[in-house]
Amino acid sequence: MIDLVATARALFAHGKGILAADESVHTATERLASHGIPTGEEMRRQFRDLLLNAEGVEQYLSGVILFSETLAQKGNDKNLFPLSLAARNIMPGIKVDLGADPMSESPDEFITQGLLDLPERLAVYKKQGALFTKWRAVIRIEGDTLPTPTAIHENAKRLASYAKEVQTAGLVPIIEPEVLLLGKHSRAEARAVITRTLGTVFSVLEEHSVDRASVVLKTAMALSGSESGKKDTPEEVAEDTLAALAESVPRQVAGIAFLSGGQTADQATDNLAAIIRRAKDVSAPWPLTFSFARALQDEALFVWKGKEENVAAARAVFLARLAAVSSSLN
Ligand code: 13P
């Protein structure tokens, strides 16, 4: 039997973190298009090969979150991506939610889909080599009206049902209730909403008897909204992020991984470094690491442009960013 707690803890191996490369077809198409890169299944495969088969990524990565399409694709070396990752001691994971739709009760908010056929899909992903999974919920801040308690609670219930199903299937759940950066809100509001959201999520997880010791939390940092006109210092971000987590996250979780959420690569790296420094100062109880998508990928996509002749240069930029993010863990 797989030891779920050991698997979850191994995602926090010293100096290592998680690459999120689990963009859906829709999101991957948008990301590639924003760099002028043509799309289609083959370009998405090359995009994943660029990142996953860059030489030396195993120094920095404990795991990679994949999209279902990638789980069944082969790299340029003709090996299936999940198998070649596992051969380098990088755990393959899988995004299992099916995206978020507007809520009928509150149409400006979102509820994540994907519970109906989850057990069947988990059995397939497990056979394909996945060891852990991810479910993302999105929580929007808007003035005094959003998020509504209903949006937080309904998303928490689905996160808990997902986590329970996943543990039953013998896989590790990453729960990602992402409080979005988008908006005019202050950092104090972000901190309050993160605290409220995570508090609700962990109390609903408890009601569903989810084993917290094999749960990984993936969360946003507490930042001023992207349209607030305010730029936070890394020390401010670290203080408010850790304060929110201290109030809401049980010490028993396997660890906490931060998403980048639309920050620049430098911002996300500097803010992570400040969070890690402060976590040591205040003796925070959980292992911490990164689980970035955009902050790890954007510079490489900019250099790659979808062209074979740019692969080596794009990989060099990707590895340099990984090295910087990983060293911020020390
Ligand atoms: P970002 O780091 O780009 O926010 O992505 C993380 C992620 O996995 C979103 O679901």
Automatic annotation (TrEMBL):
<keyword id="KW-0456">Lyase</keyword>
<comment type="pathway">
    <text>Carbohydrate degradation; glycolysis; D-glyceraldehyde 3-phosphate and glycerone phosphate from D-glucose: step 4/4.</text>
</comment>
<protein>
    <recommendedName>
        <fullName>fructose-bisphosphate aldolase</fullName>
        <ecNumber>4.1.2.13</ecNumber>
    </recommendedName>
</protein>
<dbReference type="GO" id="GO:0004332">
    <property type="term" value="F:fructose-bisphosphate aldolase activity"/>
</dbReference>
<comment type="similarity">
    <text>Belongs to the class I fructose-bisphosphate aldolase family.</text>
</comment>
<dbReference type="GO" id="GO:0006096">
    <property type="term" value="P:glycolytic process"/>
</dbReference>
<keyword id="KW-0324">Glycolysis</keyword>
<dbReference type="Pfam" id="PF00274">
    <property type="entry name" value="Glycolytic"/>
</dbReference>
<dbReference type="InterPro" id="IPR013785">
    <property type="entry name" value="Aldolase_TIM"/>
</dbReference>
<dbReference type="InterPro" id="IPR000741">
    <property type="entry name" value="FBA_I"/>
</dbReference>
